[in-house]
Specification:
- This protein is mainly β.
- It has one domain: Jelly Rolls.
- 9% of the residues lie in helices and 35% in strands.
- The protein is built from two helices and eleven strands.
- The protein is globular, with a radius of gyration of 16 Å.
- Bound molecules: manganese (II) ion (MN).
- Manganese (II) ion binds next to loops.
Length: 148
Amino acid sequence: MRTFIRHLGDGKWEDTPLLSYKEEPGTHFKTITRQVLSERSEDFSTEMRYFEIASGGYSTLEKHRHVHMVLIGRGTGHCLVGNEISEVGFHDAIMIPPLTWHQFRATGSQPLGFFCMVKCDRDRPQLPTDEDLRTLRTDPVVGEFIRI
Ligand code: MN
């Protein structure tokens, strides 16, 4: 694998595509950008991404087999992991276990930026079915928090 250094310039990493988060039809307010900071090689099977959610936005409510290791880099917000909602901020580290519902919301006045490590080879996220949503909403606090 080759050496590279990506420098941060003006809030974004230089020479690194700025991608918009997976946009699915029917979704409304979630303004998220993504930069993939790592480069896959046979010696490194992990991907390091940086996401930024605009104030008021949120990530997709989803679950999957693969694990996320998240480190907050900017701003404050809240995350749902399983049925627990936590306030998160600068340098908080969050591990999201397999098959656990999760969602991040940028509830502060600044964007919520976070680093997220995943395996390169990973399963696709599962979205909640109506049945899943009914189950999630049996906890009123969770029901109040989630955005679909
Ligand atoms: Mn996820």
